[in-house]
Amino acid sequence: MSKLQSLREALAVSPANVPLLMLYAQACIDELSFDEARRAYEQVLVQEPERVEAKLGIAQLLQLTGHLSEAIVRTEALVQADPKLAEGWLLLSRLELADGDRRSAAEHYQKALQLRPALKDNALEKLVGLSGRAAATAAGGSTEKERWPDDEDDYNDELSAERLLDEVSRPAISFADVGGMEEVKEEIRMKIIYPLQNRDLFRAYGKKLGGGVLLYGPPGCGKTLISQATAGEIRSNFISVALHQILDLYIGNSEKNLHQLFQLARDHAPAILFFDEVDALAADRKDLRESGMRTLINQFLAEMDGNVANNEGILILGATNAPWHLDAAFRRPGRFDRIIFIPPPDEDARIAIIELMAKEKPVERLDVALLARKTKGFSGADIKAMFDVTTEQALSRAMREGRVIPLTTEDLLQTARDLRPSAKAWFESAKNYALYANQSGFYDDVLSFLNLRK
Ligand SMILES: Nc1ncnc2c1ncn2[C@@H]1O[C@H](COP(=O)(O)OP(=O)(O)O)[C@@H](O)[C@H]1O
Ligand SMILES: [Mg+2]
After folding, report:
1. Which of 173, 174, 225 most suits a substitution to test ligand 1, by most atoms within 8 Å of the C-beta?
2. Containing H/E element for 271?
3. What is the pLDDT of residues 129-161, one digit of tens each?
4. Is 354 found in the same domain as 307?
5. Beta strand 237-241 with 168-169: parallel, antiparallel or unpaired?
6. b (16+ CB within 10 A) / e for 205-218
7. Which of 1, 29, 159, 447 has the fewest beta carbons closer than 10 A?
8. Looking at the structure, do residues 327 and 397 belong to the same domain, yes or no?
């Protein structure tokens, strides 16, 4: 169950619980459910009309939904009423920065800090030009590290150039760690690896390396895993942008940070820039279109098109469970124009995955073929869950009896009976999109997977 779901259930039991409502509102913001968050804050104010955190929350929501000036006005009123409200000054500073008023932003940030030093936010400091390092955010590149050796990164600093450099990495896993998916691996070799390895050859045929590849499919079937493994397969740099960073970009309303990310990839070309759960950033939802998010989406498109700088040698890899939320503009030529469907593992792939997972556990000789047959419809994550749950049971028995108890085929089958294949719900949605909204054959692979075509 997601965090949001558990909070919803808790609130069903105690609907007037203010701390719970506050947590719930924040979780809604994390999931981009702004209307829901707004209702939660308003309920808080019904219970406690003076609850200032809820008022600040509403101001933040106004910004997120594109009402920046109203957000500023309300926040100003709050700090005027209570000039000691450190969080208020901090929010005001962020809003002013989003509004392009760096001077006020710097001033009010300092005010917040005087009142409460713990509110220190290195990233904001840089953006408002208060730290000597302000230039670093604009420049990107690999020299910042040497110029500022006093690296004292903190959590808020997620998207600073220095911090991102640590993320230019080559993950330790390779295709050998991904069970099955032979066709997908071959497709990735053709679409990503060979072009990267043979750039000159590519050029000789008048082709440029770059553009975007989108992986989509049900959750738990290895999109993130195969992306990391792709990076491990090739000798090029891999910059991974996780969902929480995407949300930070959004919350910070920060086109500049996005530019910095792309710039980092350009500086390290050939490189792969990987956006996991890219739909969070590139969503086609109406509420996002009408908000400040639109500017971020436009910035993303401009960066992808190379309007901003040369993208030769950088490849943008995106993964999503919800391709139908992706703004159609992202699928035009030169953007995410190579699409790869990542299906649940077939029987052979399940054999490979089961063998991989059994390698790390004490197992009795397993009947792998039987297990693979009995886990039809399971995703890789479901198979992992089967192993995890069974391991836990074996472990508690082992502790009781004081000896190692290996996992058996029967134990695993027993667990599998209680697990529901998690991809099923996904295919129910996907089927509708594939049947009724299959523009330019985007979902053809889903249709043929479901035996509805070809
Ligand atoms: N083909 C596979 N081989 C091995 N493990 C897999 C495979 N597919 C999924 N898994 C397991 O399931 C977990 C979740 O997969 P993940 O790549 O995060 O799925 P997705 O990104 O598609 O939601 C992985 O961390 C891995 O443990
Ligand atoms: Mg994933």
Report:
1. 225
2. strand 271-276
3. 887 433 333 333 333 333 333 333 333 344 454
4. no
5. antiparallel
6. eeeebbbbbbbbbb
7. 1
8. no
